[in-house]
Prior knowledge:
Helices cover about 40% and strands about 5% of the residues.
Amino acid sequence: MGITKLADLIRSDAQDSISYKEIEDYTGKVIALDTSIVMNQFRTAVPNLKYLSPLTGLFFRTLTFLEHDIKPVFVFDGKPPKQKKAVLEKRAQNAGWTSPQRSSTMSQRTQDCIRLLELIGVPCIKAPGDGEALCAHLVKSGVVDAVASEDMDTLAFGGTILLRQLNAKRDSEVTEYSLPKLLEALQLTHKEFVDLCILLGCDYCDKICGLGPRRALKLIQEHRTIEEVVLNVNRKTHPIPLEWRYQEARRLFLDTPQVDRPVLTWQELDEEGLVRFLCHEKHVKEQRVRGRIEKFRSSLQDRRRQREEDKKVGRVKQTRLEQFFRVTRKRQAQSAAQEKKFDLLSDLGGDIFAAPPSQTAGSSNFANFAHFNRPTAQSNSNTDFANFDSFGNSSVPSTHFGTTHPSQSIPQPLHTGGGVTVPSLSSMAPAPTQSSKTGEDRYAALAELDSVLSSTAPTGSTQQGNVFGAVSGPTAAQTQPGLSSIQQGFAAAPSTNPFVAAGMAPEPMSTNPFQTNSRASATEMSDCLRVLWFPFVDNPALFGTGSMSMPAGFGNPTSYCMPTSFSGTFQQPFPGQSPFPPPAAYPQQPNGTGFPAYGQAKPPMTSYGQAIPGPGMSNNPFMGGAPSGPYPTGGSSTNPFL
DNA sequence: GATGTCC
DNA sequence: TCTTCTGGCTCAAGACATC
DNA sequence: TGAGCCTGAAGAC
Length: 642
């Protein structure tokens, strides 16, 4: 399941793309969850409650999310792609089933989960294919802020922010992976990263035997594509699998699921409905259910009150250094232990080779110090999200993540007029080395490859020679300003970091997506915001009125500021800094019942600005027909290397 | 915080 | 000689209530 | 079921 050893590889080679946070840090965020993985977790955690555990687990965990004002979106798997058949059959075999349990028809358990989630009032979406693919699509197109999954596939599918271990345990630490930072660290484009994932081993095709993560990364960094890698490995020691369908796997990862933009709404939970369903039908103890709901309500109120109070003192807190370097409880404990170790050394007369004391107690805090003046440094909890920029960026090819994050040094594929991507100059850095193979072998392989490539989809390798030639798409110079603006816009961490004033964006980081900042048009923004925020704005009763932190100006008929985060720590000027200018005034959008009409003013758009035929997806996608055939099936590919 | 229980 | 890969083994895997 | 650890085997330098 997932990508073999990818987590290890990231830990060792792209540490900066990982950050550790707490569940509180996701307050106010919309998070897509791959429901099948969540259900599996509960099923395996309590094996003797195989059936009920996913239901009760989902119930408890969802309420925990809602308590933190996290807005979950549950994504269910659709029909698995045919390329996954082998893996599913193998799993079924291991589990002692006669056939894969995962099918296009919904199991009773899935139906129960959907019913439960509807009663809780959170939206569910059925993916046309793999849930992971849709989750990734949702986050890269800005519909949600992050994907919570244990499956590393999400990154290969282009999910820009992946959260692992997002559960309700008090001391649990959420691991956040940032795809843009990962690509930057590995010096790969997304397409090259997908090839790397295929070499590591994924669910959709075999891998090259004997090629582990270290060599796979090195080879991809050197040769950029699987086709080139294959020409440069010892095929005696690393034989190419028979019927290797890597091209289909690549297409699965790169293709965007064909779905309409979902309209997400969160509603008040139906306590009586939940009691009827869980207690009367499923025989869960009523006391457990009612007790948890009561705790949920009081906890929600308490947290909101607390946030209001925090907001009041936020200006004071803002200047505290700890605000810039979040330390999770777990890491704090580790740091404390480390401090103790140094104390022991000092008891022994001090360790003259030890780091200065400031690096002990807060070592986790200061781990990112090196990035202080790097706009990509994102230690602040509220900074990686709201990738509204992807909207309206019609020039971004759909096969690449639209929410290019923060760094100009991310190797950006240049988009040619013909829809072909070529590596950026930075990706050319290690020039493809000539193989040391014997001439005969190489020429034979090249001949094979040539015949294959002439009849299959173009790859990066086929275009490498064009980098220095005429490219009809935007040039690197044209691309950079866009990146630059993204960088400024997303540099929320620097904006709260007094030490990087020089590198700060000229305009304050706007958390008001209606604010004109040239990153996306107001219409496109509003299209997105309707999904993200209006369920709350539209009906404040759903999530309480006095609880959300609104920037100044909210409720003012002449200005329309969206709720920022719930922490209330955004957009605070630093001492000595002039106050941020008030958000630009926007004509008031229809509120309340008038809002749906607003959404009809414009046909639904994909994240990249292409109009989608047909209406937006219903909140209950199981009622509406999701487009079938999520992935272009194409002709079956043969193994060009055999 | 450790342990037992959830059905 | 060092690095990398493979395969085998073990263990934890959820959330709440009570003490 | 996956992750982590350990081991021996094999390849790379």
